[in-house]
């Protein structure tokens, strides 16, 4: 009888110890599950971000170096940060870094067909998007300026953008963005069908006769105020696609006051000549 009670007590103790072990395992599992889930979520978020932002891998840099030597070095020299081969060709160390490279390649302004003449005219993109990215990364890193401007017209204020554009851009490009000749071989290109990234990069680098900052005297790349200014101007330029700014009658191609004045003189003088001949004929 005593032996059976002892066995029963020992059995109950073993059961309690087993239950305690199982309970501990269960608590440990509950504690670890959220941490594991969070880590997995973080890895998934990092993977998604990596897909949205291609990494500057050694393979991409090597591809950029190869493309540069084959397509750019014959004019700009073997080292992007070094001197060019021609006095009319700028060193890439002085043109605005990655933003300048991205701007000229995406808009088809480079490679240029000759080492003479203006290279400001827009054309067809010669490289694939991936090759453009490779050249941008390689050259931007080589010259010590690999930053591309961030721009989003949706963040901009259209009314403020119109005001800033009128102050900084309209003198050359016109309020309706049609562009105009500036004298000699210099032109202010049309902005009526450009990508917002073109606007932001041109403001950062100041291509051709355009000053760095696009005429905004307080522009400083990377600051919150300048970022907002660029977004505002980009919003206005984007609006020109669907709602062109044509104040004051017939736009006459939107080429600005000089062509419009010329047309006015031709029409006005023509009418005066016709009227004077008609009056003389009656006499």
Main sheet: strands, sense, barrel: 2 strands, antiparallel
Number of helices: 10
The low-confidence parts are: 1-11, 25-54
Oligomer kind: single chain
The CATH class label of the domain at 153-260 is Mainly Alpha
- Tell how many strands the DSSP assignment holds: 2
The fraction of residues in strands falls at under 5%
Instruction: Kindly state the percentage of residues in helix.
Output: 55-70%
List keywords for this structure.
283 residues, mainly alpha, Cytochrome Bc1 Complex, Chain D, domain 2, two-stranded antiparallel ribbon, 2 strands, disordered N terminus
Describe the structure.
The chain has a two-stranded antiparallel sheet. Among the domains are: about 60-145, Cytochrome Bc1 Complex, Chain D, domain 2, CATH 1.10.760.10; about 155-260, Cytochrome Bc1 Complex, Chain D, domain 2 (Orthogonal Bundle), CATH 1.10.760. It has helices spanning about 1-50, 60-70, 75, 95-105, 130-145, 160-170, 170-175, 195-205, 225-240, 255-280, and strands at about 180-185, 185-190. With about 280 residues, it is mainly alpha-helical. Helix 2 packs across helix 5 and helix 4 crosses helix 8. The protein has 10 helices and 2 strands.
Compose a concise summary of this entry.
With 283 residues, the chain is mainly α. Helices cover 57% and strands 2% of the residues. Among the domains are: 58-143, Cytochrome c-like domain (Cytochrome Bc1 Complex, Chain D, domain 2), CATH 1.10.760.10; 153-260, Cytochrome Bc1 Complex, Chain D, domain 2, CATH 1.10.760.
């Amino acid at each position: 009888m005593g032996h059976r009670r002892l066995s029963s007590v020992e059995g109950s103790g073993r059961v309690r110890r087993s239950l305690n072990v199982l309970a501990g395992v269960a608590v440990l599992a509950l504690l670890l599950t959220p941490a594991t889930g969070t880590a997995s979520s973080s890895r998934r978020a990092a993977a998604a971000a990596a897909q949205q932002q291609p990494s500057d891998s050694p393979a991409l840099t090597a591809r950029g170096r190869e493309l540069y030597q084959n397509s750019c070095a014959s004019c700009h020299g073997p080292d992007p940060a070094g001197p060019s081969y021609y006095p009319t060709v700028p060193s890439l160390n002085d043109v605005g870094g990655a933003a300048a490279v991205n701007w000229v390649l995406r808009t088809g302004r480079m490679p240029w067909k000759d080492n003479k003449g203006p290279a400001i005219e827009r054309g067809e993109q010669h490289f694939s998007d991936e090759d453009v990215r490779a050249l941008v990364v390689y050259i931007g890193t080589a010259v010590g300026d690999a930053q591309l401007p961030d721009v989003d017209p949706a963040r901009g204020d259209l009314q403020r953008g119109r005001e800033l554009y009128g102050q900084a851009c309209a003198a050359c490009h016109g309020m309706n963005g049609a562009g105009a000749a500036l004298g000699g071989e210099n032109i202010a290109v049309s902005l009526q069908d450009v990508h917002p990234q073109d606007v932001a990069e041109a403001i950062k680098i100041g291509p051709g006769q355009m000053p760095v900052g696009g005429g905004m005297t307080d522009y400083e790349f990377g600051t919150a105020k300048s970022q907002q200014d660029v977004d505002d101007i980009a919003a206005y330029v984007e609006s020109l696609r669907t709602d062109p700014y044509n104040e004051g009658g017939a736009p006459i191609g939107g080429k600005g006051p000089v062509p419009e004045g010329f047309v006015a003189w031709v029409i006005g003088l023509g009418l005066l000549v016709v009227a004077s001949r008609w009056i003389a004929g009656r006499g």
